[in-house]
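Support request, priority: normal
Reporter: lab tech (M.K.)
Component: structure prediction queue

Hi team, I submitted a job for dTTP/UTP pyrophosphatase from Arenimonas maotaiensis yesterday, and the status page still shows it as pending. I've pasted the exact input below so you can check whether something in the sequence is tripping the parser. The sequence length should be 193 residues. Please let me know if I need to resubmit or if it's stuck on your end.
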Amino acid sequence: MIYLASQSPRRRELLEQLGVAFDTVDAEIHEQRLPQESPADYVSRVAREKAGAGLLALAARPDAVVLGADTDVVLDGEVLGKPSDAAHAAELLARLSGRTHEVISAVWLLSDRREERRLAVSTVRFAPLSGADIAAYVATGEPFGKAGAYAVQGRAAAFIERIEGSYSGVMGLPLHETWQLLRNFGVPAWSRN
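Reply from support: The job had stalled in the queue. We restarted it manually and it finished. Here are the results:
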């Protein structure tokens, strides 16, 4: 049985696109970048820790396979994270305005006998944003709980001039990489109606 170590509605929706039967498991971990840790290593470690915490919570189910994922926005080598409040969201969006940034998404699949990882790195170009654009977007509430203070699948799509890489990865779960992992674990996609 596949378990998604996430309560994110976006990740659930994306995994459902692959037609895989799955359940969710709570996997709360502390997300803090270590000194000297590269952004890619940080995102990968957090995804691995989520999957590991999920697997530990399912210790009574030896057939469990847990999928853990993490996604973050990186600008000039800095992991931006999620905004703490409206002012922080506005600050992050102002920094992204008129610039290109990276979105790193890591996926781990773990069982009690094996583990594998995939990484997707995408680039996203934002149009220049006015203060009014930023204030109106922040007022929608959409930036909260989102890496980099925006949701590519939401209203912020209007700000995006270009994406190179995985759209689903920018959303929170790179489907091609996830599909590869599931195939390697012998889990058929589109196996449920």
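The first strand starts at residue 2 and ends at 4. Residues 2-184 form a domain with the Maf protein fold (CATH 3.90.950.10). Let us know if anything else looks off. Ticket resolved.
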